[in-house]
Amino acid sequence: MHQPLTPDYYHYEWTAINSAFCSHDGSVVVTWHDGKQLECHPLWLRENAPGPGGIDPRSKENDLNIVDLNLETRITKAFVQNGALIVHFQPEGRQASFHPGWLRHVADGKHKTFALLPQPQVWTSADLIEPPTHDGPSVLASDEALADWLDDLLKYGLARLIRLPTANEIVELVGNRIGVLRDSNFGLTWHVSVDIDPNSTANTNAELPAHSDLPSRETPPGFQLLHCQKNTASGGMSTMTDGLAVVDHLETNEPEVLELLTSRQWTFFNRDESQDHRWTGPIIDKGDGRVPWTFRAFHPVRGFPAMPEEEISDAYAALQRFGYLANWDKFQIRYEFTPGDLVAFDNRRVLHGRESFDTTAGVRRLRGTYLDSDEVYSRMRVLRRHLTSSNSSNTFSATGANINA
Ligand SMILES: [Fe+2]
Question: How far is the CA of 361 from the centre of ligand 1 (A)?
Answer without folding.
Answer: 24
